Every structure is written in C-alpha cells, then in structure tokens.
Here is the input.
Amino acid sequence: MCAADVAKSRINHGLLIQLLLSLCVLAVVIWKLENIARVFLANQELTKPSEFIPAAEGTWRFIVSGDSRNCGDVVMPAIADQSIERYQPSFYWHLGDLRAIYKIDEDMTAAAEKAGQYLSCESYHKRAWQDFIDHQIVPFGTTRFYLGIGNHETIPPKTPAEFSSQFQDWLLTPRLLMQSQDKEEIAAAKSGPCRKIAARPYLSAVPYYHWVRGGVDFMSLDNSSGVFPSDQLDWFDCTLERAHNNSGISTVVVGMHEALPSSRASDHAMCDNAINDPARKRESCESGMHVYDALVEFQRTKKVYVLASHSHFYMKGIFDNQPPRNRLDGWIVGTAGAVRYALPSGTRPGPDAKTDVYGYLLGTVLPNGEIDFKFQQVAESDMPGEVRQQYPPGLISWCYAKNSRNQEPDSEETTNRCSPPTPSSPALPVPTKPSGAAGH
Here is the structure.
C-alpha cells in the first residue's frame, strides 16, 4: 500500500470514529429529551384541571340506570369512568336487564370475533352473567353496586333462582348491612305484614331488599315477572310502615325494572297489553297499584321518588298524567346500553324526555331529604382507552350511532337468536312497538 492509500485509510477511519461519537452524543441527547418530556407530561397530568365537581356542603350523591344489554360492556365502563371522576357517587344502582339472553349481545359477539372465536348460544348463556360482572360491575371498583332484576333475567334458560345464586353476594350484602336494625324493628312492629315477615328467614338472596343512607330509605323491588308477588308485598308494606314510623327517615326512593301502572309510558310497563293471560294481567295491575297507592299515601307525610327502566329512553315526570293529589315523582332511565326506543306517542323530545342517548340519573340528596335528579349523558369519548382496545372500532361506533329502534325500526338483528319469544311472557314488546323489536 502506498503512502497516499495509508493516509486515505486513516482519514476514513477517523471519520468513522467521529461519526460513531456523534451518534453516541445524539443518543444521549435523545434520552435526556425523552426524560424531560416524560417529566413534563407527568407534571401536566398532575396540574391539569380536574373534572371533579364537588358536592355542595351537606349533600351527597348517587347514580341510577338500567338496561345494559346489547352494548352494556361498552357503555357501562363509560358511565363508571365519567360518574366517578366527576361526582364520586356513594353508589350505583342498576335496575335490571343485564344481558339480552334471548339473543347474543352485540358487544360479546364483537369481543369474541376480535379474539378469533365463535360465540355459540350455549357458550353465550354460560358466560353472559359472568361477563356482566367482569365488564360492567368491575369498572366501578370500590363504588358500591346495588343490583336489581329485570324481565330478561327470567328468559329461559335463565331463571330467577339462578339469578339469586349467581348474584347472591350483591343481594345479601344490603340485608347483612341492615340485619340488626331490621330484625329489631320487625320484631317490635305489630302489623300483619310485619308479623308475616318476622316468620320468614331474613338472610335470603331474594332480588328485593332495602338499605338506609343519610335519612333516605332505598327500596329495590322485583317486578321482573310483571307482578309483585304477595310475599314481596308483605315485605314492602312492612318496610314502608317502618320507614313511616322512623323519625330518622325523611325520604323513600323506590326502584324497580318496570314502571308502575298508569304512567306516561304505560304501554311498556306493569299492567300493559303484553300480558295476554287475563288472570296474570289482573295480578299485575292490582299489585302495581297496591304499591302506587301505598306510596301516594306515604308521601302525605314524607318524600317519595320512584325510579324505573325497562323502556330504553330517559323520561322525567312519568306520573304527571295523574291528578296532582295522586301524583308521584317518577323517572324512567333505561339508558345503560340497550337498543334504544322511540318515546311514547305524543311525547316531545327535550330536556325531560330523551331517546338515542346513553347515561345515568344523578341524584343529589339535600340536607332536608329532598333529592335533585339530573340526567347525565355519556358519549363515545367517555370510553376508557383500555375498554376501547377490547372491541373492533366498528362495534363502538355502531353502539353509539346505530343501536336504535327509534332511528332504524326495521333494521335486522345482527347476532344469533338463542330462544324464541314466549307468547304469554310480559317480556315481549307491546303491539305498538316498531316491527322487528321482538324480545325487547
């Protein structure tokens, strides 16, 4: 090799060393910039304005909704995330209809497809209620979750007994919390209903119960069959009597799946035309009016609020069609993910009546026992990121934009049916509902 070649080789070698040194310096600079950016973003996260809205002094809050089938695995985490971040409610109260059961829920089908699986009806029925726990209760974390039963929990192959077994932890917890106070009061009461209740086992995982918080007695009733059975009416009468006699109780809030008879949404409620059997319909009408009349009498001395779902829209003032003396304050809030319905005939959409929305009812309890209820809507943007990743993007946009019998009354079902409608079941849609809504 000549001297020129040696010199050229040394120059190239020197350039290579300089290039490597420059790359090392650049890597160090990038690493430092990444750390600076990470610290900056962390500080931004810590200092960004919180969405939490503090409650006024002396007040406290809870939330309610129902009907979370079809798209509940998408909507319920949004309800949990938004409500906890903004309001930190004392509890969430679900008014029933957890999964469709008569057909496979669209959210469960989409999740299976994304995982490369086929969800058969047999597999679906085995998973449905555990899926509800995993994807709709778990997102609420440490926020207490009160659970009601809807008509879809009674569609074969599901039964009320299986519901009580599957969800016994949620059904027994309120009774365990109230056991000491209840047993003492029931034993001291002299009325016929309380004497009947005293003779029955107290700790039973039946899907009706009550709990007391801050001077408010909350009663979760079971009319999943379209009827209040006589043993439940005994319990209701005894519980209402004790609330009346308890000076520490200023307010009663009663929640159930189907609205009581004679509401503005009575075409899809107790005593409606979906009940074909005359004796069963008479029992539905009479037991529903028994509860209604008892609450009207109770509110002559204390405050009463009545909550229901079953119809998949939001409506305030559902008993405003009754004479003022017999009027109860009532709401329907079937807005937790189920296919959405049109509003009752003659109802104008507005702040007190909404369809094609998802959300929950926020109750703020004032020091005097009055409760201010406001509907809170959730949007696709409220979905937690980790939930969004579990589903194909098409499912999420479909849930928020297309899951509606109000917008598309003749749209075909996109998931498999698993059981035929039962002609005598009050779970069937009323004849005035849009065509294609069977099983709703």
Remarks:
- The domain at 61-162+248-401 is CATH 3.60.21 (Purple Acid Phosphatase; chain A, domain 2).
